[in-house]
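User: Predict the structure for this protein chain, please.
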Amino acid sequence: MKKHVYIVGLGPGSWELAAQEAKQCMRQAQLLIGSRRLLGAIPVNETDAVRIESAAGSEIARLIGESAYTHIAAVFSGDIGFHSGAEQLRKCLDAAAAEIHTVCGISSVQYFAAALNRSWQNWRLVSAHGTLCNIIGEILAEPFVQGKKEIFFLTGGAVTVHSIAELLCKSLQKPDGSFYDYDIRMAVGISLSEKRHTVIEKPLYKIEQYIQSLDILSVCPAVVLITWYQTDNIACNTGLLSDADFIRGTVPMTKKETRLLIASLLTGPGSACSVIYDIGAGTGSICIQLAKLLPFASVYAIEADQEACRLIEQNRERHGALNVHIAAGFAPDAFASLPVPDAAFIGGSNGRLAAIFDRLCDMNPLVRIVLSAITAETYAEAVRCCAERRGAAYDITQIAVNKTKTAGNSHIYHMFSPVTPVFVFDSYPDGNV
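Assistant: Here is the predicted structure, written as structure tokens:
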């Protein structure tokens, strides 16, 4: 006889919130399979089915295949369509041997939004439950919509409520110990729908100490909502930036036309990077632009000049570029404490171009290196470095830009004024390393 398998979403975790269809399937089932917590939420007087504890989809599929029962309910928390183990179970089940029925449930997203008395239609939904998750990247990748961005996290495994709060507070802390003046709130839902459930929401800077006292966080399922409200002190540009988007000071800055070429080389197809160096970062125009285009990457601004470091910090704050990290010091010595780069831009070398270039190649033979040259001496040294790099090819692009300015006091006639030509080198592995 063909088996009937019911994949059931129990909802947040209580019997009261399970859909009527889900309850009916569980009452009719001869065998219930699910985690200890979910099976414990099903009253014993509602069904006399045999119960087996299992949470992994592949293991549940094996148990179903070996069972002699014809009506089996596999129970999952929340809704089976939202980062549920039900997806793995469906892949493992033999559709020819069993008729599969799916019954939806209330997801933790829906329940949490109702508990907070708000809609969730613009939330970015992220699962950090037992999987690697770039918390900062997920937050930065979401644009502001109607003055705010909202990112929902399922937690579990290495990613916990505590770790999210600590990571964000660390990213928002300035070198002097103060915090950026951002309006960010963190809401936490613990054991949703259960008798001891807790829902709290506080400004990020106030919640970290508060949640340390919540001992139940270590043993109970929890969800997190980060809400970042757009304020006047933060630029929300998500794409290409103009020169006017940066605080300039007296430090030289790579101009827009050159900056966009460099960004295209480091962010184009086939150049997926998780760690990028901006060496001789100046005002931070390159590293900020890269950080905006690659929210999941970590960009390290390496700069020895103190005034330039302050400007980078100001531009980082202005653009909310939490994935930019400032490494004060001279290259290549400053690389010692940094992760291995996937790519690097050399905008300033203080006469150490060859040493910087060689150290980058030693750290990662496959590293992509983009550098700029405006003097004949730097151009010659860049050619030598790129030509002598084994297993790599290189391209050179010259940028010659002319911009208009009004002639005298007239607003009728405009003259073209040349900008200093820039040579951009792109050194990349050719597959023979």
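The longest helix spans residues 306-319.
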